[in-house]
Amino acid sequence: MAAVDLQVLFGLVLYFGLNSLTVDTLNDLGSIRGNPLLMFWAVWHVAAMVGVVVFVRIGRVLALSAKTPRQRRRGRLVAFASATVVMLAGMPWPGLSYARPLFRGW
Q1: Is residue 95 part of a domain?
Q2: Number of compact structural domains in the chain
Q3: Residue 8 lies in a domain
Q4: Residue 90 — pLDDT band, cuts 50, 70, 90?
Q5: What's 43's DSSP letter?
Q6: Domain enclosing residue 68, as ranges
Protein backbone atom coordinates (compact mmCIF):
# COMPACT_ATOMS: atom_id res chain seq x y z
CA MET A 1 0.00 0.00 0.00
CA ALA A 2 2.88 2.37 0.73
CA ALA A 3 4.26 1.79 -2.77
CA VAL A 4 0.91 2.72 -4.34
CA ASP A 5 0.68 5.84 -2.16
CA LEU A 6 4.18 6.90 -3.20
CA GLN A 7 3.32 6.28 -6.85
CA VAL A 8 0.20 8.44 -6.46
CA LEU A 9 2.32 11.25 -5.04
CA PHE A 10 4.79 11.06 -7.92
CA GLY A 11 1.94 10.82 -10.43
CA LEU A 12 0.22 13.92 -9.06
CA VAL A 13 3.47 15.89 -9.19
CA LEU A 14 4.01 14.81 -12.79
CA TYR A 15 0.39 15.34 -13.79
CA PHE A 16 -0.17 18.78 -12.34
CA GLY A 17 3.34 20.18 -12.07
CA LEU A 18 5.78 18.93 -14.63
CA ASN A 19 3.70 17.93 -17.65
CA SER A 20 2.64 20.83 -19.84
CA LEU A 21 0.40 18.55 -21.95
CA THR A 22 -1.99 17.83 -19.10
CA VAL A 23 -1.98 21.40 -17.83
CA ASP A 24 -2.90 22.68 -21.30
CA THR A 25 -5.52 19.94 -21.70
CA LEU A 26 -7.15 20.76 -18.38
CA ASN A 27 -7.41 24.40 -19.44
CA ASP A 28 -9.26 23.38 -22.63
CA LEU A 29 -11.23 20.18 -21.96
CA GLY A 30 -13.06 20.45 -25.28
CA SER A 31 -9.85 19.57 -27.11
CA ILE A 32 -9.83 15.97 -25.86
CA ARG A 33 -12.87 14.76 -27.83
CA GLY A 34 -11.17 13.86 -31.09
CA ASN A 35 -7.70 13.14 -29.78
CA PRO A 36 -7.16 9.63 -28.33
CA LEU A 37 -3.84 10.65 -26.76
CA LEU A 38 -5.39 13.51 -24.80
CA MET A 39 -8.46 11.42 -23.93
CA PHE A 40 -6.29 8.68 -22.50
CA TRP A 41 -4.13 10.96 -20.35
CA ALA A 42 -6.90 13.32 -19.24
CA VAL A 43 -9.60 10.73 -18.48
CA TRP A 44 -8.82 7.02 -18.75
CA HIS A 45 -5.38 6.88 -17.14
CA VAL A 46 -6.49 9.01 -14.20
CA ALA A 47 -9.71 7.03 -13.72
CA ALA A 48 -7.84 3.71 -13.84
CA MET A 49 -5.24 4.80 -11.32
CA VAL A 50 -7.89 6.13 -8.94
CA GLY A 51 -9.55 2.73 -9.26
CA VAL A 52 -6.25 1.07 -8.34
CA VAL A 53 -5.97 3.16 -5.18
CA VAL A 54 -9.56 2.30 -4.24
CA PHE A 55 -8.96 -1.44 -4.72
CA VAL A 56 -5.75 -1.33 -2.66
CA ARG A 57 -7.53 0.48 0.17
CA ILE A 58 -10.40 -2.02 0.03
CA GLY A 59 -7.88 -4.86 0.23
CA ARG A 60 -6.33 -3.36 3.34
CA VAL A 61 -9.70 -2.91 5.02
CA LEU A 62 -10.73 -6.46 4.14
CA ALA A 63 -7.48 -7.81 5.55
CA LEU A 64 -7.85 -5.89 8.80
CA SER A 65 -11.52 -6.66 9.36
CA ALA A 66 -11.56 -10.36 8.44
CA LYS A 67 -12.11 -12.82 11.24
CA THR A 68 -10.09 -15.75 9.91
CA PRO A 69 -6.76 -15.97 8.08
CA ARG A 70 -8.52 -17.58 5.11
CA GLN A 71 -10.93 -14.61 4.79
CA ARG A 72 -7.94 -12.24 5.05
CA ARG A 73 -6.10 -13.98 2.24
CA ARG A 74 -9.16 -14.22 0.03
CA GLY A 75 -10.07 -10.55 0.52
CA ARG A 76 -6.54 -9.41 -0.21
CA LEU A 77 -6.26 -11.69 -3.22
CA VAL A 78 -9.46 -10.42 -4.82
CA ALA A 79 -8.76 -6.74 -4.09
CA PHE A 80 -5.10 -6.78 -5.10
CA ALA A 81 -5.72 -8.89 -8.21
CA SER A 82 -8.42 -6.41 -9.24
CA ALA A 83 -6.01 -3.52 -8.61
CA THR A 84 -3.36 -5.22 -10.73
CA VAL A 85 -5.75 -5.81 -13.63
CA VAL A 86 -6.97 -2.20 -13.55
CA MET A 87 -3.37 -0.95 -13.32
CA LEU A 88 -2.32 -2.97 -16.35
CA ALA A 89 -5.37 -1.78 -18.29
CA GLY A 90 -4.60 1.85 -17.49
CA MET A 91 -1.02 1.78 -18.73
CA PRO A 92 0.02 3.22 -22.11
CA TRP A 93 1.32 0.02 -23.69
CA PRO A 94 3.40 0.13 -26.91
CA GLY A 95 1.34 -0.49 -30.02
CA LEU A 96 -1.70 1.49 -28.89
CA SER A 97 -2.66 4.90 -30.27
CA TYR A 98 -1.65 6.59 -27.00
CA ALA A 99 1.45 4.43 -26.46
CA ARG A 100 4.69 5.39 -24.78
CA PRO A 101 7.96 3.52 -25.30
CA LEU A 102 8.99 1.01 -22.65
CA PHE A 103 12.54 2.34 -22.78
CA ARG A 104 13.33 5.94 -23.73
CA GLY A 105 15.80 6.46 -26.56
CA TRP A 106 15.02 3.23 -28.43
Answers
A1: no
A2: 1
A3: yes
A4: very high
A5: I
A6: 2-89
